[in-house]
Each structure stands twice: as structure tokens, then as C-alpha cells.
Design brief:
Layout lengths: L4 H9 L17 E7 L3 H14 L4 E4 L15 E2 L9 H18 L10 E5 L2 H16 L5 E4 H7 L14 E5 L3 E2 L2 H14 L3 E3 L4 E7 L2 E7 L2 E10 L5 H6 L7 E13 L7 E3 L6 E4 L4 E12 L7 H14 L8 E12 L5 E4 L5 E5 L9 H14 L13 H4 L16
Parallel strand pairs: 1-2, 1-11, 2-8, 4-13, 11-18
Antiparallel strand pairs: 3-7, 4-6, 5-6, 9-10, 10-11, 12-15, 12-16, 13-14, 14-15, 17-18
Helix pairs in contact: 2-6, 2-9, 3-9
């Protein structure tokens, strides 16, 4: 069924009892042309674009839990393309352009809201860095506006502009940035892939990768062996463990990133805002809850839960920027497992095992990259060559030293 105002009206007349299932729940077949391991946003987008853009429909997406049960359902929903380095700007701007047409493409309401992303600065040095970033964006055709103190005050007058340690001097605004509903993105891509013949296989965990003569021939799963000509790994924080099944060691550490939601409030903030003097970012959901986050936990872990020191650090940043938040109750928090690469930038590349492809190392930036990640990974799998927008995201950069260090903190995953 194609969703439309007419279909909503007719279904309402029938008591909403005739809506069909959004996607099938098939048993795995014996073999596929392509298996995508990971049923999150990146894996589902890859399957969708393989079918839509390349005509490859004999595809299965294998997910050990339910679709979107990993980081796709555990993030703060921000979309943006306000990057600095040449390797990153084309990719994330392509992702932003895909976001802008995503709902029409998928025929699904992903609740894309281009409310604007504002990065605050608090010193002359930060102002110069924001001006440089904005200029780099504009040279690549990306929207960017450098705001002074009074322009920022007109947008968010409730902040502590005269904080003794962190006075707000201005900010860099990307008006086209914003948020999208993470669950809806997963469901939209799942529905789109299913409509094009892709098998979405839930509760099916990969337990091994079978290789013969240096080439993959399939995967071992809890549902048995499934043969495949090509295998794409899109498993986020479990990338190192999945690659190890093929004898590969990745330049990745897995860390927990916590996210937080407050109690529901009346409309307070209509943009996405980040603190320049600490790692804190905040927006407001359609339900009224403030959605915010900060730094990853400082140690490697596969646990989808957080710890108290990071909670304290994030809330200290919130209070320094916006003191009125001290009166707001925290409703819940959770953790996602981040695949932190050594330079803070992702990997979309072939591996040394023929037929095995890797989509990993997304660090904090996985959700905003979902459309372009799927598009470029599908291109790589289908044509066996990188998409121009993702050409810089190859594994060899870690051996050559040609890293894409957006934050400039070196080869330390916990600092990215």
C-alpha cells in the first residue's frame, strides 16, 4: 500500500482495521547474492539502495534482535553537514541532500525537521575556528552563517550569556540542519527494502563467516548456514567482533555513548544547540522532552548502559550553558555502543577478504550519515569501487597516515 491522504481517510472509515503489515517476516533462504549483517539504519539503507539504485534484489538483511534495536534506536536524532575537512564535507552534504528528499522517496513520514543546528563559541580562538569551518562549508556549497552575540541572544535568550568562565560570544548556524525521527527512519527504509524484494530476517544472529580460498561463501547463523556471494558488515559497535570472525583486526574501539531525555515540557527550544566549551548538545522532541548528550564513556565496553560520572559531566555542561535546566527532571537515559575509529572518521571499504565489505567507524556521526552511508555502501558492494563522496573512507589511510582527523586530537579513539 502507498500511504496518502486518501488511504488514511479510507482506512479511518474502516476503523483502521485493514492496514496491511509494513514488511514481511520471511524465513532465510539457502542463498543470496548479498547479505547485509546489521538491521539498523545503515544496513537497511544499504539494502534499499542496492535494490532501488542497482537492481540487486536477491538480498537479505540479518539482524540478531529486532530491526533498529541497536544504535539506530539509541541516538539523539541530529542531522547536519557542518564539517570542516575535504574528506568529510562532500559525504555529509550528500547525506543532507538525501535527507531532504527522503520522505518523498520512501513514501514514509520520517519526521525530518530542518530546524537549524547552532554551534556556540566562547572565545576569540573558537570564533576564528568557527569562521574557518563556516568558510570551508560555504566553499563546498553548504549553508553556514556566523552569528554574533546579539544574533544568538535573539534565538536563545534564556542562556547564560555572561557566565564568568564560558561567556557566549556567538555561534555558527547551519539552517538546513535539524533532526529526524530515528525509529521512523528505520521503519521507512525497512518498508522500502521489503517492497523491492529484500528479505528482512530478525532474531537471526551471525555466529561465523565461512571463507574458502580467500573468498567469502556465506555466514553461519543461529538459523543455520546461509550462502552468499557478497557480505556487507554494518554492525556499528560490534564491527570489531564481526570482522574477527573473518580473521580481521580493525582500527576501532567500542565505547558507550549515553543519551538523555527530560520530562515533557512546553516548547522551549526550536533548534539543535551545542555547547562550545564542553561536550553538550540539546534539542526538543515533538513529545516535549529535551533530548541531550555529551561525551562517550572513557573506557571500552560493549554494555548498552551508562555510568554516573558521564551523567554528572553532561549535566554540568547543561547547567553551565542553561541554568534553568536545574529545575527540569531527567526522565530516562540509555547507552549505545559506538565504533570509535582512530581518527574519528568512518570506514566504507572492501576488506582483504574477497567479497567482504565493511561499513564501520561512525563514532558520534552514524545517524546523520544514514542515507549517504547506505547509498555509498550499496555502490561499493554493487560496483566493487568506492562512491566518489566516500572515496576518502578507505582502510588504507590508517597504514599510510593519511587520516581524516576532524577534531585534531590524534589516533586516540576515546578522544574522538
Amino acid at each position: 500500500m502507498r500511504y496518502s491522504a486518501f488511504s488514511i481517510f479510507t482506512q479511518a472509515l474502516r476503523g483502521n482495521a485493514s492496514w496491511p503489515r509494513v514488511w514481511r517476516d520471511p524465513a532465510p533462504r539457502a542463498s543470496y547474492d548479498v547479505i547485509i549483517v546489521g538491521g539498523g539504519g545503515h544496513g537497511l539503507a544499504t539494502a534499499y539502495y542496492l535494490a532501488k539504485e542497482h537492481g540487486i534484489t536477491n538480498v537479505a538483511v540479518i539482524e540478531k534482535g529486532y530491526l533498529g534495536s541497536g544504535n539506530a534506536g539509541r541516538n539523539t536524532t541530529i542531522i547536519r553537514s557542518n564539517y570542516l575537512l575535504p574528506g568529510n564535507i562532500p559525504f555529509y552534504e550528500w547525506s543532507m541532500k538525501l535527507w531532504e528528499g527522503l520522505e518523498q522517496d520512501l513514501n514514509y513520514n520520517a519526521m525530518v525537521s530542518q530546524r537549524g543546528v547552532l554551534n556556540l563559541y566562547h572565545s576569540d580562538t573558537q570564533r576564528d575556528a568557527m569562521a574557518r569551518r563556516g568558510n570551508a562549508m560555504r566553499l563546498h556549497g553548504v549553508d553556514a552563517e556566523l552569528l554574533d552575540r546579539e544574533q544568538v541572544r535573539a534565538m536563545v535568550p534564556f542562556l547564560d550569556f555572561d557566565n564568568a568562565r564560558f561567556p557566549i560570544q556567538g555561534g555558527l548556524l547551519q539552517p538546513r540542519g535539524g533532526t529526524a525521527r530515528h525509529d521512523a527512519v528505520v521503519w521507512g527504509y525497512a518498508r522500502g527494502a521489503d517492497r523491492r524484494g529484500v528479505d528482512l530476517i530478525q532474531n537471526c544472529e551471525m555466529t561465523g563467516i565461512r571463507i574458502e580460498h580467500g573468498r567469502v561463501i556465506g555466514i553461519e547463523t543461529t538459523h543455520g548456514f546461509i550462502r552468499a556471494k557478497k557480505i556487507g558488515l554494518a554492525v556499528a559497535g560490534n564491527s570489531s567482533r564481526a570482522a574477527a570472525m573473518a580473521g580481521l583486526r580493525l582500527p576501532i574501539e567500542s565505547h558507550v555513548l549515553q543519551a538523555f531525555v527530560s520530562e515533557g515540557l512546553k516548547p522551549l527550544i526550536d533548534i539543535v544547540m551545542t555547547f562550545g566549551a564542553g561536550h553538550f548538545y540539546v534539542s526538543q522532541s515533538d513529545k516535549g522532552g529535551l533530548v541531550f548528550g555529551g561525551d562517550i564513556d572513557g573506557y571500552a565496553s560493549y554494555a548498552q548502559r551508562g555510568n554516573l560520572p558521564v551523567i554528572e559531566d553532561v549535566l554540568e555542561g547543561a547547567m553551565a550553558l542553561w541554568p534553568a535546566l536545574g529545575r527540569v527532571r531527567l526522565l530516562r537515559h540509555w547507552g549505545g555502543v559506538m565504533d570509535m575509529s582512530m581518527d574519528g572518521s568512518p570506514i566504507i571499504d572492501r576488506t582483504s577478504v574477497e567479497g567482504l565489505y565493511l561499513n564501520a567507524g561512525w563514532c558520534y556521526g552514524g545517524f546523520k550519515a544514514t542515507p549517504a552511508s547506505g547509498w555509498c555502501f550499496a555502490h561499493l558492494i554493487a560496483r566493487n569501487e568506492p562512491h566518489p563522496a566516500a572515496a576518502a573512507y578507505h582502510l588504507a589511510r590508517f597504514a599510510s597516515g593519511a587520516v581524516i582527523d576532524e577534531k585534531g586530537v590524534g589516533a586516540q579513539a576515546n578522544l574522538h
